[in-house]
Amino acid sequence: MQDVSSLVAQAREGRPRAVARLISLVEGASPQLREVMATLAPLTGGAYVVGLTGSPGVGKSTSTSALVTAYRKQGKRVGVLAVDPSSPFSGGALLGDRVRMSEHASDPGVYIRSMATRGHLGGLAWAAPQAIRVLDAAGCDVILVETVGVGQSEVEIASQADTSVVLLAPGMGDGIQAAKAGILEIGDVYVVNKADRDGADATARELNHMLGLGESRGPGDWRPPIVKTVAARGEGIEEVVEALEKHRAWMEERGVLAERRGARAAREVETIAVTALRERIADLHGDRRLSALAERIVAGELDPYGAADELVAGLTEGSAQM
Amino acid sequence: MQDVSSLVAQAREGRPRAVARLISLVEGASPQLREVMATLAPLTGGAYVVGLTGSPGVGKSTSTSALVTAYRKQGKRVGVLAVDPSSPFSGGALLGDRVRMSEHASDPGVYIRSMATRGHLGGLAWAAPQAIRVLDAAGCDVILVETVGVGQSEVEIASQADTSVVLLAPGMGDGIQAAKAGILEIGDVYVVNKADRDGADATARELNHMLGLGESRGPGDWRPPIVKTVAARGEGIEEVVEALEKHRAWMEERGVLAERRGARAAREVETIAVTALRERIADLHGDRRLSALAERIVAGELDPYGAADELVAGLTEGSAQM
Questions:
Q1: Single pTM value for the model
Q2: Contact call for A313 and B319, based on CB within 8 A
C-alpha cells in the first residue's frame, strides 16, 4: 500500500494511475478513506464542475468530448466523470459510448473515469462527490460530470455541479421530456445539439417559450442561454464554453458559486453522517443494547418508538468514534 | 379527534372503524403515533403472524381467503394485511384482486386492510410492522400478511412474520424463479397450489430437491413441509393450517419464536431510529451548524468526513427530543 501523501503528490503531477488509485480508495470506503479525504481537503476548490445531462441520443458523449478539446486548447487540465446510475461496474474501463472519448485517452492533461453507482450505499450522492474531490485536488481546472444511460438522476447530477448544462436534440419530443424530468428547473445553460437537423430552430423556440425567457427578469438574474451546436463537428462548442464562463463569472459576482458549493458540501456531510449512523446502529446488532431493547418490546414493556429514543440516546455516548 | 385509549378499547371490541383509524394513525406518522404505539405495547404479542409470498398467479389471494375460512372455523379472529410495495395508495379500499376476499368482508371476526408502501419513508420495513401491532393489540389471533403484486419484497415480508409460507404453482418455471428470489431460504412451509394441474408433482419434487429435503438434518431441525393445495376449492388448506401449527409449536419449544420476534423488534427500532436521525439532520439544514460546517469544507479547512463527525457529535446534544 502506497502512502496517501505520495499518491496525492503523484496525482497532482498528473499521473493517471495515482488518480485512479485515489478514486478507488474513496469510492470503495477503504480504511484509508478518511486519511485520503483529510489530505485532499486543503487542495480542493480550484476546479470548476460542469454537469451535463440530457436524454439518450442527444449527443452527451460527443458534446463532452468536444468540450474537452476546447478546454485543452486553453491549456486547461480536464477531468471527465461519466456516471452510470444503472450499472454496478466502476473503473477505468471505457464504456461503449466512451469510444468517442478515445482521442483524449493518451492526453496526460485529461483524466477520464467511469463510475457506477448502482448498489452503492447512498448511491450517486455518496460516490460522485468524492471522485470530484479527487479530480479537484489532482489539479483539474474543469471537471465534466456526465450521466451515462437513462435515469431519474439528472437532478442529482445537476446538484453536484457548479453549472448545469442540459442538452436537447431536435425532433425527439424533448420539450415534453424536459418538462417531465424537471430539467427545466436545473439548466444554467441549454444546448440544442445536432442543430444541422430539421427542427432545431423549433426546438430552441419551444425551449425558449417553456423557460419563459421572453418574460422580463430582474436585472441581476441569470438568463439561461440556449446555444445551438453540432458537437460532432465542433460547431458551437466555443459558444458553449463562453456561456459557461459567463455563468461562472455571474455566480462569482453574486456569491452564488460559494452558495452552491456550500449546499453541495452540506448534502455531502448529511449523506456521510446518515450512512455512518446507520452503520453504527447496525453494529449494535452484535451488542447487548439493541437486543435488550428488542426483548422488552417483545415482552410488551416498551414500544418501538420509546426503544428508538433510548437507542439514539445510547448511540451518542460513543460519538467521537464513528 | 377521538382519544387514543377509547379507540384502542373499541378496536379490541372488534370495531373495524376503530382499527382502521388506528392503522391510519400509525401509518401516517401522525402526532398521535407515539401515544398510540405506547398504548398498544402491553396489548401485543398474542397474535401469530403468517407471511404469504409467491409469484403473481400462484393464487396468493385465494389461498389467503381459504386460510381465513379455516381459521374462522376454529373461532379465531383473523387480520389480513395485503401489502402492495408498488402502490402509493393505502386504505380500506379493496383492490381488484381482493374481490376474492369479499366473502369475509361482512364477518366481524375478520379485518382486511390493504397497505401501500411505495413512497413511504422506510418503505415496507416502516409501515407493515406498525399495522401488525395494531391488529395484534386489537385482538387478532392470526395475522396473514400477503404481498400484492410483484416485488423484491418477499424477503422483507418474510422477515416480518413468525412463519413464512411460500406459494408456488405448477408449470410457471417457479423452481428457477424461487431460487432467483432467494425464497428457498425464507420458507418455513411451502405450498404447491393449483395441484389439480399437470406438473404439480414435478414442481413438488423439484422443490423437494432444491430444498435438499432428502438430506439428513439434525433431530431438532425444522424440515419445511411441502403441502399441495387447490385453494379455490379449499383442498389441502386444513393441511396448511396443521403445518403452520406444527411450525409454531416447534418454534415455541426451541425458543425460535421469541428469537424471531426479538430480531423483528430490533429491526423495527433500527428503522425508526435511522429515520429519526435522518430527519433530525435534515432539520439542521435550517440551522447554523450544518451550514457552518459546509463553509469550512468549501474553504478547504475541513473534509466531509471530519464534518460528519462533528455533525453527529452535535446531534446527540438534543437527543432526548427526537
A1: 0.64
A2: yes
